[in-house]
Amino acid sequence: MSSMQSHRRASPPRERFQDLRGAEVLVVSVLRLWAEPLREPERQHPHWQDGMIEAGLSNEAAVAFDTLMRIVLAATTRSLDLHRPPCPGLGTDEALLLDMLRLAQRGQHGEAGLLMNDWLPLAGVRMAMAPLCVLAAALARAGLTLPDPDEESRMPGRTAAGRIDRSRPTADRGATLLH
């Protein structure tokens, strides 16, 4: 069995967008705005880079994000589960990107690559890891670190209702719809 096998969340819960905080909101919002012109190319859309600029991120972060997503779009092995900007839910692949960035910020590049293997074949993972790591580092330099939900759930004062229940990556190639 290859060490770069698919590692997808097992039956991910449908988390709410409003449960996200800080860097998570920024990343998912930028992703949704980035994808909108692909859905409706004839319409005018807000510039996805504006949120990154407002958050104090450099042009390097925007280029890394765009490069990462263009690689994913060109080489993905399945449809991506990305939601529209007003959607209150969180798409499976939106959560997956957050997990990849979280791991990259912690220096766990191999683990991030394993998750990315759910989107891309090995050659695509190799190409996409550099922009993922550049983006993760740019977010961290701007003070936008992605929180570890497991650490937050152990924090005093957090109730079970306030925790985000996240599934662990498992091997599963089930496809989802882009909506």
Features:
179 residues, mainly alpha, two-stranded antiparallel ribbon, 49% helix, disordered N terminus
In short:
The protein is an all-alpha fold and 179 residues long. Helices cover 49% and strands 2% of the residues.
3D architecture notes:
- It contains seven helices and two strands.
- A two-stranded antiparallel sheet has the order 1-2.
- The protein is mainly alpha-helical and 179 residues long.
- The chain has a domain at 20-38 and 47-149.
- It is 49% helix and 2% strand.
- Residues 146-179 are annotated as: Disordered.
Task: Please state how the strands of the largest beta sheet are arranged side by side.
Answer: 1-2
Radius of gyration: 16 Å
Give me the secondary-structure category: mainly alpha
Q: Give the total of beta strands.
A: 2
Shape: globular
Give the biggest sheet.
Answer: 2 strands, antiparallel
Question: What percentage of the residues does DSSP assign to strands (E)?
Answer: under 5%
Region (Disordered): 146-179
Secondary structure blueprint with pairings:
Elements: E1 8-9, H1 22-39, H2 49-54, H3 59-75, H4 92-105, H5 109-116, H6 122-141, H7 149-153, E2 169-170
Antiparallel strand pairs: 1-2
